[in-house]
Specification:
This protein has 191 residues and is α+β, with helices and mostly antiparallel strands. 31% of the residues lie in helices and 15% in strands. It has a five-stranded antiparallel beta sheet with strand order 4-3-2-1-5, with no helix packed on it. It is elongated, with a radius of gyration of 37 Å.
């Protein structure tokens, strides 16, 4: 009570109830009415919350890109930048490749991080990867290279090693002239 009047609370405005009419003649009747009014408000709010959850899930599922992975495939996993990272902008978020060990649910997979370490990851945080190449490629010996070898290179030719030469690539004819940042080149129309 404030100066002999009943306060009008935001709850009274929302429920559309006059505080004087709410009290009635007896306080027990007012408490009973308040209890049932609050129960109805709770039920209404709960029903609205459930309908909004269903609506939000429907919108989320429309934008969802389902990826199905197979056990044994390799994937990259998105990891957030750690707190101590100086440059979050240039942090490489995709880690891996990791092997998928098990499909836990329709959208989550168990991946093998290390020898005895595993993690469960949602499919939205995964993207397909090629299997890691732990072996160096086998280069077949070149017949012409072994014929031209001298007797001093017989040990190398027996092991099957071949010399690989990095030859410069041919000059590419460009449509527009390459320019230095300080050099000004007039624009030329393409032929």
């Amino acid at each position: 009570l404030d100066k002999g009047r009943l306060p009008r609370l935001p709850m009274h405005i929302l429920m559309g109830v006059n505080p004087k009419a709410m009290l009635g003649k007896h306080y027990s009747e007012a408490a009973y009415n308040l209890y049932h009014t609050l129960q109805n408000a709770y039920i209404t709010a709960n029903n609205m919350l459930k309908s909004k959850q269903i609506s939000a899930k429907k919108h989320h599922d429309n934008d969802l890109h389902v990826q199905n992975f197979i056990v044994g495939e390799f994937t990259y996993v998105w990891k957030p930048a750690p707190k101590g990272c100086e440059s979050r902008k240039f942090y490489d978020h995709w880690k891996g490749p990791y092997e998928i060990v098990q499909k836990v649910t329709s959208h989550t997979y168990k991946i093998k991080l290390a020898q005895d370490k595993f993690d469960i990851v949602h499919m939205e945080l995964m993207k397909a990867a090629a299997p890691p190449d732990n072996t160096s490629p086998v280069i077949p010996p070149n017949q012409n290279a072994t014929d031209n070898n001298t007797s001093s290179n017989d040990a190398d030719s027996d092991s099957g090693l071949v010399e690989i030469r990095n030859e410069p690539e041919p000059e590419v004819q460009r449509r527009y002239p390459v320019r230095n940042r300080t050099q000004r080149v007039p624009y030329q129309h393409a032929p």
